[in-house]
Amino acid sequence: MPTNKSEPLHPYDPHRYMGTLCQVGPLSSRVNLPYANHSGGRVHHGNRVACGEVGEFVVIECDEIAIFGRILDVRLPDRERLSVEPGIGEKHDVHPIGSIQLLASFNLSDGTVQSGVTRYPRLGSRVYSAHPTLVHWLVQDTKGRKASSDGISFRFASLPDADGAVVGLSPEQLFGRHCAVLGATGGGKSWSVARLIEECLLYRSKAILLDATGEFHTFADERVQHAYFGCNSGPECKGDEVVFPYHDLTEGDLFAIFRPSGQSQGPKLRAAMKSLKLAKAVPALAPNGFLVKADQAKQPIEAAYRDNVAKVESSSADFDLALLARQIEQECVLPSADYGKRPQAWGSLNGTDYGWCVSLVYRIEDMLQAREMACIFKPGVTTPLKAVVDRFLNDDSKRVLRISLQNIPFAGNAREIVANAIGRHLLGLARNGSFRSRPLLMFLDEAHQFLDKLLGDETSRYCLDAFGLIAKEGRKYGLTICLSTQRPRDIPEDVLSQMGTLIVHRMINDRDREVVERASGDIDRSAAAFLPTLGPGEAVIIGVDIPVPLAVQIDRPNAEPESKGPNYQEHWAVERLE
């Protein structure tokens, strides 16, 4: 047994003995629990020894290997069922039996911990109740990494059955392979995210939070920088007002916002965007800012297109959007003048084509005038979000940037598209090597709103894939993501499977639990049965670098998110009429 003072006492304590194995299987084993019917358990050196309770962690003897497990159920043989019922049947000794899920292996010779079972125990192997210190040490000692006093450790939770023993996990364990905070409404997801952010503030970190609902405006630490879109008043409107100008979007983003229908509007919209890019590149062709094509010669425009093909064919939206409706009208012309007699010139306006595009024109004009869309289409002199992000990344005094998306409307899928554009910008910076020497962590609240989104119809599909790409390749460039969602079933499985660490709160929906089971090899159906019974703030931490699924109590954050529902007792109270 190692003698390092950071390692726990020997796991085989005779005072914590609880029974012997009577059956061994590949995933679980059965154990005789002679003390399970004793009320109250025992107390040894101030620690309670339950000796046979559901959820209790145990250690199984296996020569120089200690097998770590968890009790899943406790029962009596059928013939002894009535022996514990007062007043029924004769009083006899009972012989409880429990099922143990095998979780991890602990090598007593070198102190290493490995997920899974490296060697199976034998029938008759002794089983001991795991000391809380051992549980705490196993979680922090994954792959032989001993905790040091000067190492970075996120202490955001405690063990509920170990007198408040603090759980400390390294950023590599939590975020090294991405992280997801999952759970039903009211389970404590917001507290978990808030505590993780507060831990980030203690170190020289860089993190960006996309706050979908504005609930995290309560952060008052000067190391937190706030930015918001289009808010006039309210406590959530703190920090810098920002915009996301349409020219920072792509043609595909605008297609998703304006939603051209069928095969008539889409080609005209695309042609209009290219014409406006050409008009900006060669102003002499467009005295009024847009290209007039009706009854005009084709040669000057075609020659200018050949000279500026790179600008015109780029995916950027670098043109005057205010002229888009008028340019669409100019795209609705006959292909040749004089009914085909002069192919070198365009013909007159085609009323039929324009009639098909009228609904698109009206939709564009309405959106350009909508007040809630001003942060995209009428940015004015307000600071662009990209500039705020770049300034934050270069400011050593700031650790966290919170971006409130609360006031971006869902109309035209604007909120989802802007969030996707932010993710695309960060991924571009990551690919250019911006985060290799200082990794960036991105928190995405209400992630189900922004992932697995296919916009458009069957003729034109637009996929919001920026965050999915970050999950799949961002880790290589120093960009990791922490998702938070109450609907895991709405997260693509290929994205959720990339999450190396899951912090799972109470989860009632069986489809959500099945998704978590498939995404994590460390949890099976029997272990998932614990999820609906978790209380507020309780969570199970599952991870590639965490040897055992660990039940913890998330600490109360200093800056509690504003996520409470309405107080009916206060606001609906009236004097009762007798």
Write the layout of secondary structure elements.
Elements: E1 17-24, E2 28-32, E3 42-44, E4 47-49, E5 57-62, E6 65-75, E7 97-107, E8 113-115, E9 126-129, H1 132-140, E10 154-158, E11 166-169, H2 171-175, E12 179-182, H3 189-200, E13 207-211, E14 224-229, E15 240-243, H4 251-258, H5 262-281, H6 299-307, H7 309-313, H8 324-331, H9 351-369, H10 374-377, E16 383-384, H11 385-393, E17 400-404, H12 414-431, E18 440-444, E19 453-457, E20 460-464, H13 466-473, E21 479-485, H14 493-496, E22 501-504, H15 510-519, H16 525-528, E23 538-543, E24 546-554, H17 568-571
Parallel strand pairs: 12-21, 12-22, 13-17, 13-18, 14-15, 14-17, 15-16, 18-21
Antiparallel strand pairs: 1-2, 1-9, 2-7, 3-4, 5-6, 5-9, 6-7, 7-8, 10-11, 10-24, 19-20, 22-23, 23-24
